[in-house]
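FYI - complex with zinc ion, inputs then prediction.
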Amino acid sequence: MQTFNGKIVCPRCDGNGLVYKSRVVELDLIIYICDECEASWKNEELSLNEFQDLSTFLEDKGLVNMDVQFIDLGYDWKK
Ligand SMILES: [Zn+2]
């Protein structure tokens, strides 16, 4: 996994974005989101085969992006 200044580089958009950790309040779920392309992951492996667009992920859960509350847990999540 590539890092930049201790932050995780998004494997999907080729170094344009950094991935931060976030809690979706409505789902009580931790996800990892790219700040550039909005790819999202449910686990910290950030596998290229497993990302979903954030809005698609939320729609699958019956949620609309605009209505969802996120708690930003920051970029410093990789142990
Ligand atoms: Zn990205």
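The mean pLDDT is 94. The two ends are 12 Å apart (CA to CA).
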